[in-house]
Amino acid sequence: MHRIQWEEAQQKHVILYPEGMVELNQSSAEILKCCDGTRTLAQIVSDLEQKFETTGLTDDITAFLGVALQNGWINQN
Amino acid sequence: MAGLTKTNITPPRWLTAELTYACPLQCPYCSNPLDYAKYQSELSTDDWKRVLTEARKMGAVQLGFSGGEPLIRKDLPELVKHARELGYYSNLITSGYGMTEETILQLKAAGLDHIQVSIQASSQELSDHLAGTKSFEHKKSVAHLVKKHGYPMVLNVVLHRENIHQMPEILAMAEELGADYIELANTQYYGWAHANRDLLLPSKEQFQKAEQIAQEYKEKVGGKMKILYVIPDYYEDRPKKCMNGWGTTSLTIAPDGMALPCHSARELPGLDCPNIKNYSISEIWHDSKAFNFFRGFDWMKEPCRSCDEKEKDFGGCRCQAYLLTGDMFNTDPVCSKSPDREVIQHAIDSAQASANLTNDEKPLIFRNSKNSRALAKIN
């Protein structure tokens, strides 16, 4: 139902769903791209902290994933 | 109109492809123009492919295949496939009429993302009456097929005085059909709905009761079924932000190739809406008179011009201003600041005065080619 894709004209990722669209900022897109059904929350945090050479992302990522879950952008198994 | 530089123009995001005006249904609130029978010619498959390609290149990403009934076009799967290859999210807005399991499989294979099925009421008798065509049972089976093949089940019910009392049953029907979304859209009074307004516009009490029922149901079902309730603007005191602003987001292509800033715009005088047969989508979007006509704020009259809310609603709907006040530059009369606000009250009063008339005294005008030809005064 939801599809995430890169939009060249907008230079950003968007989530597409029936008759609607959400534009994502870079960090949201990075988090969602990690939601591939294989990684755990801890893995997503450590992968992104490594990728962006930073620490302390747990709270931000958890909060965003809560929003994503509520909107049906991702599912929890 | 004047004073706009090209850099102000945002690219189109939503493309509505009205593939045909032909439709097996005859809903008396249809948003197609009253004189649609005048426009017999339809774009070719290649024309449509070019439209999709060019609009996508500019940034359009949501695509609605609409009509009339888009399933009538035999090249629909081919167009869906082209859209998918270009990266559109494609929505099929259908009555469901004529849809078979084979069609759904074909469209799914072509890459269609979403199917929205309209149902006219919760009972067969009323639904078939409003559609002007026996279709209720078929629509329900289509809803099951949509679900069976893994599509989100999106139902659309247009609300008006003839069916608004069925609100609890409509919601129960949607739940029973396994709807993921139900769009309860109060009639917008343009085109055929405007011609039938006296018979369709509910009272404020009816509308408030229906909204309350929808609200309670929303709480009951939680996130399981999303309920989208589209308000009727006659009972609001501010106009809608029509089309998210003229020429900012939305591009509609009519069956004959006319490019429209909104689907009603071909009824506005003097816009000279361009046809895609003569221009590229980019030329149409950036340079045409029609798409620049109500961009920005310079076109506004008072009270809009000096209003501190003008950036919120852009003065409301141009088509509604024209239809109800005769001047498309006026403030949308739905706004309580409009000097023409009384036309809305007159419409409400007139509808109430018709509430007790029988069908013989004041019949609904069904949307069909015979009525359209009569209204357009053509043979």
From TrEMBL, chain A:
Keywords carried by this UniProt record: PQQ biosynthesis
Q: Which Gene3D superfamilies match?
A: Coenzyme PQQ synthesis protein D (PqqD)
Q: In which pathway does it act?
A: Cofactor biosynthesis; pyrroloquinoline quinone biosynthesis
Q: Which Pfam families match?
A: PqqD
- One GO biological process from the UniProt record? pyrroloquinoline quinone biosynthetic process
- Subunit structure, interactors included: Monomer. Interacts with PqqE.
What NCBIfam families is this protein classified in?
A: PQQ_PqqD, PRK02079.1
Q: What protein name is recorded for this chain?
A: Coenzyme PQQ synthesis protein D
Which organism was this protein described from? Answer: Crenothrix polyspora
From TrEMBL, chain B:
The record's annotation in CDD domains points to: Radical_SAM (cd01335), SPASM_PqqE (cd21119)
Cofactor dependency: [4Fe-4S] cluster
One Pfam entry for this protein is SPASM
Please provide the Gene Ontology terms (biological process) for this protein: molybdopterin cofactor biosynthetic process; pyrroloquinoline quinone biosynthetic process
Amino-acid positions noted as binding [4Fe-4S] cluster in the UniProt annotation, renumbered to this chain: 23, 27, 30
EC number of the protein:
1.21.98.4
Among InterPro entries, the record links this protein to: 4Fe4S-binding_SPASM_dom, AdoMet-like_SPASM_containing, Aldolase_TIM, Elp3/MiaA/NifB-like_rSAM, MoaA_NifB_PqqE_Fe-S-bd_CS, PQQ_synth_PqqE_bac, PqqE-like, Radical_SAM_PqqE_MftC-like
Cofactor binding remark: Binds 1 [4Fe-4S] cluster. The cluster is coordinated with 3 cysteines and an exchangeable S-adenosyl-L-methionine.
The annotated pathway is:
Cofactor biosynthesis; pyrroloquinoline quinone biosynthesis
Is the keyword Metal-binding in the record?
yes
* Domain Radical SAM core span(s) in chain numbering: 9-224
| GO terms, molecular function | 4 iron, 4 sulfur cluster binding; cyclase activity; iron ion binding; oxidoreductase activity; S-adenosyl-L-methionine binding
Q: Which reaction does it catalyse?
A: [PQQ precursor protein] + S-adenosyl-L-methionine = E-Y cross-linked-[PQQ precursor protein] + 5'-deoxyadenosine + L-methionine + H(+)
**Keywords, comma-separated and alphabetical:** 4Fe-4S, Iron, Iron-sulfur, Metal-binding, Oxidoreductase, PQQ biosynthesis, S-adenosyl-L-methionine
Q: How does it assemble?
A: Interacts with PqqD. The interaction is necessary for activity of PqqE.
Q: Which family does it belong to?
A: Belongs to the radical SAM superfamily. PqqE family.
Q: What does this protein do?
A: Involved in heme d1 biosynthesis. Radical SAM enzyme that catalyzes the removal of two propionate side chains from the intermediate 12,18-didecarboxysiroheme (DDSH) and may introduce the keto functions on rings A and B, yielding the heme d1 precursor dihydro-heme d1.
Task: Output this protein's name.
Answer: PqqA peptide cyclase
> Which organism does this record belong to?
Crenothrix polyspora
